[in-house]
């Protein structure tokens, strides 16, 4: 199950491709596996339930992880759709 969740989150990030053309210059991008792992790492699955999981929290995680990874500043609006997709993955698969 965890592998499936990770792959689904990677797929969301890969389809979105937030660094744009700069992504082709990143040698260790690995289809956003590190970033997907980081996003999932910061969600505490022991204390998070369907009632407490929020798109807003995931949006912030996505922004923070991608800023740290690629030094890009994304807006809440830019992260909204991927955050909603990640939320849906987590809501359906893990909680």
What is this entry, summarized?
The protein is mainly alpha-helical.
CATH third-level topology: Endonuclease III, domain 1
Mean pLDDT: 89
Q: Output the number of helix runs.
A: 4
What proportion of the residues is helical, as a percent range? 55-70%
Can you tell me the CATH architecture? Answer: Orthogonal Bundle
Structure commentary:
With 95 residues, the chain is an all-alpha fold. The protein has a single domain, classed as Endonuclease III, domain 1 (Orthogonal Bundle). It contains 4 helices and no strands. It has helices at residues 2-16, 33-41, 55-70, 76-93. Helix 1 (2-16) crosses helix 2, helix 1 runs antiparallel to helix 4 (76-93) and helix 3 (55-70) packs across helix 4 (76-93). The chain starts with a helix and ends with a helix. The relative contact order is 0.20. The model has no long low-confidence stretch (mean pLDDT 89).
How are the SSEs placed, and which strands pair?
Layout: H1 2-16, H2 33-41, H3 55-70, H4 76-93
Task: Jot down its keywords.
95 residues; mainly alpha; Endonuclease III, domain 1; 4 helices; 61% helix
């Amino acid at each position: 199950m965890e592998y499936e969740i990770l792959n689904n989150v990677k797929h969301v990030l890969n389809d979105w491709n937030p660094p744009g053309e700069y992504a082709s210059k990143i040698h260790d991008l690995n289809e956003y596996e590190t970033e997907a792992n980081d996003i999932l790492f910061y969600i505490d699955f022991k204390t998070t339930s369907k009632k407490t999981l929020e798109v807003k929290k995931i949006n912030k995680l996505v922004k923070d992880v991608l800023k740290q990874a690629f030094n890009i500043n994304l807006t809440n609006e830019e992260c909204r759709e991927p955050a909603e997709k990640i939320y849906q993955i987590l809501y359906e698969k893990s909680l």
